[in-house]
Amino acid sequence: MPTSIALIAHDSQKADMMALAQKYQTTLSRYHTIATANTGKQVQAATGLPIELIKSQRDGGDIQITARVIAGEIACVLWLCDPDQLQTIAASLLNLLRICQIYNVPLATNLSTANALLQSLQKSRVAHLIFNPVAGQGNPDADLALIRQILEPQIQLNVIFTKPDLNPTDQAKAAIASIQRRRSLISDTNFVIASGGDGTISAVANALIGTGIPLGIIPRGTANAFSVALGIPTGVKQACETILTGNTCIVDAARCNSFPMILLAGIGFEAETVERADREMKNLLGPLAYLIAGAQQLLEQKLFAVEVEIDGSVTEFHCGAMTIANAAPPTSVLAQGLGEVIPNDGLLDVTIAVSKNESLTLSDRLLAIDVIGKLFTSALVKTPIENEVLACFRTNKIKVTATPPQKVVVDGEIIGTTPVEIVCIPDGLTLFAPLLNSLVIPNHKMA
Ligand SMILES: Nc1ncnc2c1ncn2[C@@H]1O[C@H](COP(=O)(O)OP(=O)(O)OP(=O)(O)O)[C@@H](O)[C@H]1O
């Protein structure tokens, strides 16, 4: 996609060019701006924008712009011409016009056409793509090239790479601030895309909760639970196409202590399993890492006591695993006690694997394998499971205290240990989703 705007103004038109640049400063700031020497210096002084200065028109600046149009770099040319000089510059203007005709690049020669062009650029869709270059086991360069190839013809992409020492939530907050600055000018055309594993997507989603700004998801992690749970395609190409269609759905979000939660919190078994499946294991085995880690953990899992507080009343359980889900893929079997986790019902789905015993015997562990199998089936057929080792219910707010304190995993990351308080945030997040997704409300479409 062309990323530059070219400016030229005759002396009598320079004041208009300054005013135009000031009016559309935010739009120009999204592009690389090139300008003939004197015009460029004045625009730079008036707006503070970085401008690439080329030769003045007298010394061939217009020819340099013509060459950049041929090179495919220019999104539009604004040449504010002095009507009295049109005869003198006719040959130069004709050259530029000819090349703009051939390469189908808009060329404005007076103020009203320049205004119209900048207005349409102002309305064009801009996406801040927060891209984790080390997520998953794929080739990040090839993935990014494919994303650019599919999205850039229709969307201006601002690519922001995640860094090991930076929280993607902060990167997303900076993107949101720039979107909100633009919102006073034009709404609904700017959004954020997160591309990486569940860790990156969850961190970016955190910043977007409650903003109404849509989130596009291009999953490139190991499990991609976030996409699977919300019915978003897991292939890079299909995920990009979903964003291009512009259909959105609204789902609940949640908070676990101060941490955002889109999917689920796992206490006990699930947290220990996630901790076992470290980066090295995931690189080596991919999704199988979680299965192997789960099997190992099943042999070692110890029971713990939990106090569950809902609306001021406290219930106690002896358990080995507890899952509190806002949304969950069918593969998160420990969240599936109610058969289906509904991501837009304003409620959290709680599944507790309870035990009457003080500690887990071998037969308890074998029973646990049987129950996991049943939970998996229950998720596939979307039917609640009835089993005396499971306690399942829905609530919008829950407090959990464990003895001894247990590790807690939220959306794939260990966040600390119990106690936790989890609160559902109804309709907290807007996502791009395929039209066939049951969560999409028809006609809820971005411009
Ligand atoms: N530029 C970077 N260089 C090195 N590490 C990074 C960089 N950006 C992010 N990270 C690390 O990536 C991790 C988050 O990865 P993310 O969850 O997106 O992918 P993943 O771990 O491959 O996914 P999954 O959990 O599905 O395997 C964090 O630990 C973060 O510190």
TrEMBL record:
Entry annotated with the keyword Nucleus? no
Provide GO CC annotations from the record: cytosol
MGS-like domain location: 1-145
Which Pfam families does its entry note?
Answer: DAGK_cat, MGS, YegS_C
- Which chain positions lie within coiled-coil regions? none
Q: Which GO terms describe its molecular function?
A: ATP binding; kinase activity; methylglyoxal synthase activity
Q: Name one GO biological process term.
A: phospholipid biosynthetic process
Q: In terms of domain of life, where is this protein from?
A: Bacteria
Instruction: Tell me yes or no: is Glycosyltransferase among this UniProt entry's keywords.
Output: no
**Keyword terms, alphabetized:** Lyase
Under Enzyme Commission nomenclature, its number is 4.2.3.3
The record's listing under PROSITE patterns reads:
DAGK, MGS
Q: Where is the DAGKc domain?
A: 122-260
Q: Which PANTHER family match?
A: METHYLGLYOXAL SYNTHASE
* NCBIfam families with a match to the protein in the record: PRK00861.1, PRK05234.1, YegS/Rv2252/BmrU family lipid kinase
| Identification of the protein by name | Methylglyoxal synthase
Q: What is the lineage of its organism?
A: Bacteria, Bacillati, Cyanobacteriota, Cyanophyceae, Pseudanabaenales
